[in-house]
Amino acid sequence: MNRSTEIVQKPSVCPHDCPSVCALDVEVVGGARIGRIRGAPEQTYTSGVICAKVARYAERIHHPDRLTQPLLRVGPKGSGQFAAIGWDEALDRVAEAFLATERRRGPESVWPYFYAGTMGLVMRDGIERLTHAKRYSRFYGTICVGVAWPGWVAGAGKLAGADPREMAKSDCVVIWGTNAVATQVNVMTHAVRARKERGAKIVAVDVYETETMRQADLALKVRPGTDGALACAVMHVCFRDGYADRDYLARFTDAPGELEAHLSTRDPAWAAAITGLDVAEIEAFAALVGRTKRTFFRLGYGFSRQRNGAANMHAALCIPAVTGAWAHEGGGAFHSNSGIFTLKKTMIEGLDVRDSRVRRLDQSLVGAVLTGEPEALKHGPPVEAMLIQNTNPLAVAPNQGKVRRGFSRDDLFVCVHEQFMTDTARYADVVLPATMFLEHDDLYTAGGNQHLQFAPKAIEPPPGCRSNHEVVCALADRLGARHPAFAMSPREIIDWTLRQSGYGDLARLETERWLDCQPPFEDAHFLNGFGFPDGKFRFKPDWTRTPLANDGLRGAWRDMPRLPDHWAVNEAPDDRRPFKLATSPARNFLNSSFTETATSRLRERRPELLVNPEDAAGLGVGDGDLIEIGNDRGRTRLHARLFAGASPGVMVSEGIWPPSAFLDGWGINALVGDDSVAPFGGVAFHDVAIWARRA
């Protein structure tokens, strides 16, 4: 066989910011290039199924526009004018800038900034080790889970839930606030299996007609931010019509009597006026989940991205506690298993040198931090230097106008370590080329399932690309940062982490590919008690003491409802801004990743706004016309797509297109507020009031 065409299959793990964390079988062609990528059929959650964008990953990893050499800015910030330099010069320049900033303003004026461009623990979180060793400003990640997780943990007491594979054993699967067809296809794998094998019903709850809604047996299209009202009405019917499991309530919940009395006025007519649903739809949904004890609630992130999002998540989570669905296999609820792994991440993150007195700056407030707002800076020194890995804040962060103003500062030094010339990289002083997941070793936990997985390096990176770990260690050496892990390889760090966490060693995990860490049924279903000292589920959450790591109370936390309710705190439409905007995921992008690949861009076409035909007629806008939308934060223009699946008064922009893809250079997040959401911070991406007019 010709060695240049020989195909060898190698194991890997999808690194992207998706709950599925799919196990992959990867074709390596000629020892150097990636061929086809498939889901590993033996892994019981991935079950051989992966999304199309990852299946065509060869298009991304071998993209001709990949960054392959360090670059030095030679033009104005944002101009994209760079000159190639060597790695030693690039790293020396970054280190010199950081050391000069430390001398001038102190170490807290340096802010390493990262997120979930890779979910591999070594490559994502290793930057924390540099932060802690140098006493740089710490990073508080809120942009994704900051609202959803408090809502779940306020009720359940810990971030865990029923085995997600149990969806295949359910008689009813409720997919609430997530477009699983587009964003976590494996949810549909198990839900559809239940429908085929058990005749299960699939219910979808969302704010517009998604592909998941179209595949559901019952699709409930609610007004944005009204999920709490729907949940209350469902529980009202369950109490009213005898579907509530009173034995379960008495044994496992804190205040069933108070809840029943509270819900006595939250009937379907009340909820219909708030949600926009028909009373009959609410009654049918309540009867279905009330009669069907094996009902599995798969609660997503989308419906939490409102100012009342944590309260909505908690309200939806209360339903299976009322019906007693937790007591049944195939019943209960699931949001994330992130709390089950309990890895000791000392070597990855440098936790042994972390100083809790050093300020934590909020990721979502990056614009406020960089424009010098005292509250965002914790009344400390300005940020004058940044190292950015695994994220693209000039595209994904809220209040894009403020973010851009911050990154435009002449006195701000920014190093971006990236795979492509993103909008953020264009504002950098130094750009460093990064590896992709098949070009380095890493360890992965899953949010959407229960597997701990190792992904070994499959191919060599392009000459000139270096991993996050290599960059962090090289900078640590130049900056005088000390920690044992700076002298360790990723494999050594992974082996240490596994051994110290009780998972054996790397040799075992590499042989087995993944470890199934699913807790026993009784624990996963909280039949041994929920995660509070008394073991009771909390209908009456104490939002100030929710057992979740946070950086203090934020937003309108004092006004949060004491029992499940519709919390009317959202950005309300008015005469000046009569429409609500949802910034929902696109099927062929993942946050700002894949926006550079030709097939994904071809399938998504261009930035578009889904507009109900009734609204379009009122604005004098036809299909394909330019439409301008805006509010006090910013404005942008994009093409209208008439879509009856969007409710009147609700407009939807799918995907985080790069700002440079918009006609005026302003992305959709120019319209999104950066005010902190209760109780612990986060962003209300789907809670935006706007005006609209024909452009």
UniProtKB/TrEMBL annotation:
Keyword Protease in record: no
Gene Ontology molecular function: iron-sulfur cluster binding; metal ion binding; molybdopterin cofactor binding; oxidoreductase activity
Domain 4Fe-4S Mo/W bis-MGD-type: 7-65
UniProtKB keywords: Iron, Iron-sulfur, Metal-binding
PROSITE patterns: 4FE4S_MOW_BIS_MGD
Family as reported in the entry's similarity comment: Belongs to the prokaryotic molybdopterin-containing oxidoreductase family.
Name of the protein in question: Anaerobic selenocysteine-containing dehydrogenase
Originating organism: Roseiarcus fermentans
